Amino acid sequence: MAKPAQGAKYRGSIHDFPGFDPNQDAEALYTAMKGFGSDKEAILDIITSRSNRQRQEVCQSYKSLYGKDLMADLKSEISGDLARLILGLMMPPAHYDAKQLKKAMEGAGTDEKALIEILATRTNAEIRAINEAYKEDYHKSLEDAISSDTSGHFRRILISLATGNREEGGENLDQAREDAQVAAEILEIADTPSGDKTSLETRFMTILCTRSYPHLRRVFQEFIKMTNYDVEHTIKKEMSGDVRDAFVAIVQSVKNMPLFFADKLYKSMKGAGTDEKTLTRIMVSRSEIDLLNIRREFIEKYDKSLHQAIEGDTSGDFLKALLALCGGED
Q1: Taking a C-beta distance cutoff of 8 angstroms, is the pair 126, 96 a contact?
Q2: The total number of structural domains that make up the chain
Q3: Which keywords, in A-to-Z order, does the entry hold (predicted)?
Q4: 180-151-167 Cα angle (round to 5)
Q5: Can you list the pairs that 123-127 forms with residues at least 24 positions away whose Cβ atoms lie under 8 Å?
Q6: What was the pLDDT predicted at 7?
Q7: Which of 10, 33, 211, 264 is within CB 3.0–4.6 Å of 215 for a Cys-Cys bond?
């Protein structure tokens, strides 16, 4: 599929449920969890077919009808992968992303891939909401958390992305040529007249982290004209580690964000074992944004539908819930 043109619509698989009645849903969930054992089917059916906004209303109704916290009740009834998915769907998106970032930085190791995936793909408005949610939920700024958990150039990239300060305008051709020249110099294709590697690296970071998407698309085109190389391929070849991964993620998102997520979903299910965390995080966070576009990119690239991939790789209620989010077979 051709890239969606600027302004072409990204479409999620989950929408507002028509004829929605939060009290009715709250009652049905209460009944499903009453007594010994729970009716998981009923819980799944309701939660996967409502939009996030509607789920928040159900939480309110549940509290006013029963004086209880729906999230806490769900937590005591479901566990494992299914719980991670269902409780994720119940959280407002910014709080969900904040939690995923917190989890990625918890404990001994850091999950750099999760940090990159979230910070490199969210809009300015989404990033700002995540910052607020992070502070509210963890009483610490996201920037401080990133600062104490990462280091070096990688830390600077993440902190820059976490400001949510990307330009929103169109392209500027002269600027794009200049930006492409910086990219060519840092990626060692062009001669470096200035010879100062560090300041070039910083300029390259500034370009990738703060220029608008339409402008960066132009920069990548100019880069090809100038060098006969693709910028993504060159970054993969010339750079290494987390810095490379972060830059590649930004470039891929700018080129085609649904394809970026389709690749991540494919990798989460490839080979032995499933990376349920990544699979869940993407299905939950993209369900109302561009999951239909992701599905289209998935089948086009991998010759099987996302639906088939999920069916072949998961089972039980977790599988049912994922397929409900997926929203159909292609």
Answers
A1: no
A2: 4
A3: Annexin, Calcium, Calcium/phospholipid-binding, Cytoplasm, Repeat
A4: 40
A5: 123/164, 124/164, 124/165, 124/166, 124/168, 125/164, 126/93, 126/94, 126/97, 126/164, 127/161, 127/162, 127/163, 127/164
A6: 47
A7: 211
